[in-house]
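Regression test attached.
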Amino acid sequence: MSEFKALDGTGAVAEAMRQINPDVVAAYPITPQTAIVQTFSEFVADGLVDTEFITVESEHSALSACVGAAAAGARVMTATSSAGLAFMWEILYVAASNRLPIIMTNVNRALSAPINIHCDHSDSMGARDAGWIHLFCENAQEAYDTVIQAVRIAEHPDVLLPVMVLFDGFITSHAEERVEIFDDAWVKAFVGEYKPKHSLLDLDHPVTYGPLDFTDYYFEHKRQQVEAMRHAQKVILDVADEFAKTFGRKYGLFEMYRLDDAEVAVVVSSSTAGTARAAVDKLRAQGAKVGLLKPRVFRPFPAQEMVAALQHLKAVGVMDRAISFGSMGNAGPLFLELAAAMKIYDAGVPMADFVFGLGGRDIVPSQIEGVFRSLLQIAETGKVSELVSYVGVRE
Amino acid sequence: MATKLNLKELSKREDRLAPGHRLCAGCGAGIVVRQILAAIDEPVVLANATGCLEVSTTIFPYTSWRVPWIHNAFENAASTMSGVETAYRALVKRGKIPEQNVKFIAFGGDGGTYDIGIQALSGALERGHKMMYVCYNNEAYMNTGIQRSSATPLGANTTTSPAGKVIPGKMQPRKDLTAICAAHNIPYVAQASPHNWRDLMEKARKGVAADGPAFLNVLSSCNRGWRHDTSTTVEVMKLATETCVWPLYEVENGVWRLTYKPKVKKPVTEWLEAQGRFRHLFRPENQYMIERIQADVDGKWERLLKLCGEA
């Protein structure tokens, strides 16, 4: 059972949170995330949830309180954006290393300076090595579905890692869409009860959380985090399967669109994937063999699976909504990671990076068509003249 | 019935901070923590800011804590404990765990409390979490090697306020964090010192019994930084109170009260002389600093007496 509602991305996530009814939410306002916690506050004020909501004085304290509450055995959620995520940075590592299954929606927004409230991916990309699972969502529906799945992924005993659910600021967070909202009871049944193994509130079995490791143990603890991240991929897929059986919509590590018989493809996540789909359709109608791969799971990075999906192509273009300043070619993080994977697994496909949309700069179908035309040229010549180019910038 | 605060009864209790921790000989922090935890009969859950107490008690795979304990980071013991305390209320409300009158206590040094943690502390106090925050105040960043904090007293020689040829140590008096916490209008705020153990233990009891946040600012000698013999910890802290450098008082529901008044207010030189960190002040060219310190202490003491209705 479900019903369709007109919701923006923040409203859809707030609905998921209402249905999950977590024990504790700690959050701080920041544009464009604010609407999530504002809407959730209304649910608290109206008694639609019985969550304890901590209105902290900063994002640093938001995640710090989440760490405390999760260590105390509570199911915990928060939300942030941009500078808020950056301010949490220190505690992102603490949450992951203490293996606390915290769920955080990060509405992707550019980092200062200059201050800019609009979308790009520099915030979450900056936190990509912190030990969190990163799940990108294209639209409000995916955001809603993914928050529900995130609970199961994070709390799985083979994983026990925090999860970031990511979608585009304003484009997804503030655009109303038709969103299928499932029955409360179904969602509650799907997420189940959280039964923590080690809780600060288990007074008969006192635990010490967050001790000091010297050179003799720190490395092993980091190594264990690697195992958790390795297990995460299977769990993400298992949870997606169960979600598909229960609710009907199917999710994987990434989505492929007209990729099987394509000669060139664009790899782009989040809302821009929707724009890219339109560009694919238009070019296909003109006879060009183009396709799309939309990454969903960025951490753990599905390197082999992506390579398997892309190795038949004659050219691959990655579209990055962030820059890894000073990296090879000043490319974006998605390109760097995928280029490494393609090389390691001998794909031998020419690749180029197309940085776009920083600070919310619009990206329109004709620009993505331009990306495809560049890729078709690369496919024809086998030569990449520009490793990294910038789409829609005034040079 | 609460356990009587006499040594015979208290010595029968098992320490919640087990022996074998690696705090220095003569360290005040261990004394402070043991006195506070011995005063409380109820179950406790503890949070600890990064600092000496944290690193000395939880060197993996060992822990000195016989009670639940969490360390998160340096600046966030208050917000971490906010989360723990809130989780407790949430889980009790939902019937997932039993109501057990658990007391939530956060410990932080002065660096983690006066400086880097003041925002998290202020936020937690304003939100009204039922928790007690204890600052074990050794008046500098001792864990990193004796750097000045905003709790470091005027004139002290530290590694970042060294007594040099032209600057004689720290040139600013300490921040009055106890008064700042009192200004949050929380139910209980107190300043204490473990040399007066009964006073500290009574304050700890009042703190955890308060219907809301409590803050204890507890003097805690670090002989490595204060430069005194390991055997004189308690005497040096007592001198801080006898000279009115560290008055013992409480603010209970807005009412200020001295809990100890020296019969004779000793000159600050007695406290200064007892510690190597002030040795340079006794050079003739630094005499003005001693006068400044005495004037600062006198002014604050007079103001405190007024607040406590004693003047």
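Expected vs. actual: identical. Residues 2-247 of chain A form a domain with the Rossmann fold fold (CATH 3.40.50.970).
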